[in-house]
Amino acid sequence: MISTRELTRDFVVSRTETVHAVRGISLDVQPGELVAVLGPNGAGKTTTLRMLTTLIGPTAGTATVAGYDVTTQPGQVRRKIGYVGQGNGAGHHQRAGDELVGQGVIYGLDRRAAKRRTGELLEALELTELAGRKVSELSGGQRRRLDVAMGLVHAPKLLFLDEPSTGLDPQNRANLWDHILRMREQYAMTIVLTTHYLDEADSMAERVVVVDHGEVIADDTAEALKSRLAGDRLALTVAPGNLPAIAALAEKLPGAKEVVAVGDELSVRVADGPAALPALITAAQERGIPVAGAQVHRPTLDDVFLNLTGRSLREAETNGKAA
Ligand SMILES: Nc1ncnc2c1ncn2[C@@H]1O[C@H](COP(=O)(O)OP(=O)(O)OP(=O)(O)O)[C@@H](O)[C@H]1O
Fold first, then answer.
1. Sign of the dihedral defined by the CA atoms of residues 32, 185, 187, 180, in that order
2. Which atom of ligand 1 has the smallest separation from the CA of 48?
3. Which residue has the least CA distance to atom 7 on ligand 1?
4. Would the keyword Nuclease turn up in this protein's UniProt record (predicted)?
5. For atom 5 of ligand 1, which residue has the closest CA?
6. Fold of 2-226
């Protein structure tokens, strides 16, 4: 569905400064995949999406989207894809239903087909009762759902969503996601989205592409990334006097690293927490070391990012760091 090779985009900001926003991204997306592109502010996510949706051209490299080349066949690409940008495009004084019909006509549907499609989408996104409302009168969550409908009016098989849930409260985020996943089933779509919500990428996407400083630094399922790059952390509570002995046992666990004792707790990073924990407790019992408490902490995608870059994605977000 998507194939890029060394896709690159520079922005010349002044005679002395060029921003290397995207530095040679090679990516393949198969039909039906749901891919989340994750990275801190300024990582190059939006720029990549803008190239794939033909809004801007690459400086170098190639990209084929839905069978067409983004540089030489942008018109064909646009007809095949849907794009929901950040803070999207519905006109504020238009009525929601009219906006959708108008969008359908722009995409070449005749008025009747556009109205039929509008009815279908309004229903699927639970907006039917709001069709007569002006866009400016919709809530943030409703407006975002309308944005998604706008991107789907011409029934694309490939949908790009740029930070679809940014600015929504948790309830509206969950609701938007319900709708997106339902639409995906209904229309058998491939979806590529950008997000900086770690939990969202983790739970929704089957595949996570981590981008930093304009490059892909990891690309796999969230589960695989977490177990390969971060591992689980075991935390055992024992009497302080027993910490050295239990630390020695922890060192022998498969894939053990970062063995740290703090207070009465021993922490160790292992490849497979649920398997390692009973093994460690058994070994402790055999040596007569009582274990007062034990927990397995599964890693987050933030642990993965930290592991890859030495920075936390959350910190990078808070500081608003740019590439
Ligand atoms: N039109 C432009 N002119 C100059 N620099 C740009 C332009 N668009 C983007 N950039 C720069 O390119 C880099 C990548 O920006 P991009 O918007 O792709 O990041 P992002 O990962 O989408 O970030 P965010 O999560 O904040 O949306 C940033 O340093 C940004 O300042």
1. negative
2. 18
3. 11
4. no
5. 11
6. Rossmann fold (3.40.50)
- Right CATH for 232-298 from 3.30.70.980, 3.20.20.70, 3.40.50.720, 3.30.70.890: 3.30.70.980
For the chain (323 residues), the mean pLDDT of every run of 10, in chain order, is 97 94 96 93 93 95 96 93 76 81 87 91 87 86 86 88 83 83 87 87 89 95 84 91 94 90 89 92 94 91 85 63 37
Q: How far is CA 66 from CA 2, 63, 88, in A?
A: 6, 10, 23
pLDDT of residue 187: 83
What pLDDT is attached to residue 238?
Answer: 94
Pocket of ligand 1, beta carbon within 6 A:
11, 13, 19, 21, 39, 41-47, 196, 322-323
